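Slide 14.
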Amino acid sequence: MFFLLSKTLNYLTMPLVIICLLFLFSWVLKSKKKALLFKIGFALLLLFSNDFITNEVIRLWELPATPFQEIKKKYAIGILLTGVTKGNMVPDDRVYFHRGADRVTHTLQLYRLGIIDKILISGGSGSLTERRTKEADEIADALKLMGVAGEDLIIENESRNTHESAVATKKVLQDSISSSECLLITSAFHMRRSRACFAKIDWPCDTFTTDFLIHERKFTPDVLVIPRLDSLQIWHIMIREWVGMVAYKLSGYI
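Slide 15: predicted structure.
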């Protein structure tokens, strides 16, 4: 039930959904409020599509990057959280990545540099619809093509969300290593929730953030004034993450 409710809330809190509903109500209602609803919808559209405002807000949330040369410690396991591939694509003889592919490529770089010895890939499917292949299996296939040895890959492909990934990862590793030997790898916007989930089950790990939504601070007209579709998408990602944080807190997952 929690899984279904959290996914439903994600859709209902999407900025574009809220804006469209305000415009729809301003069109169908026959009252003095229709003008107010239109103005609110238009104001929200300008707010959520403003690149400068979006970037400044995300800067406050995302955890900063760690340069590879500053990592002095070696880790037995890099815990790679999934959520970066497109499911049920055809032809199904390849892996389809979306914008979060940095999670995989930067994990590969950590492995190549000898910072992590092995990679544990955690995640099955976080979709409400059935997925033909588990995401952890897809990423493992991709990493093998990139040269990672099969014996250096550990696959956990049953978890559906971050909490379940944390629980499943601890179960797999606790009899062989300690949490201090693990490096948690996920997107910068997702790291706060991920880190809290692992800490809640008494498996605190060092962290390595990837897949940043922020960009260099700019004061050019295209950033300050011109509405941008990318900003709407970033707000969708962030609001979904914040809703997830609240839901996890209420459920005792963090």
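Speaker note: The beta strands are 75-81, 116-122, 153-156, 182-187, 206-210.
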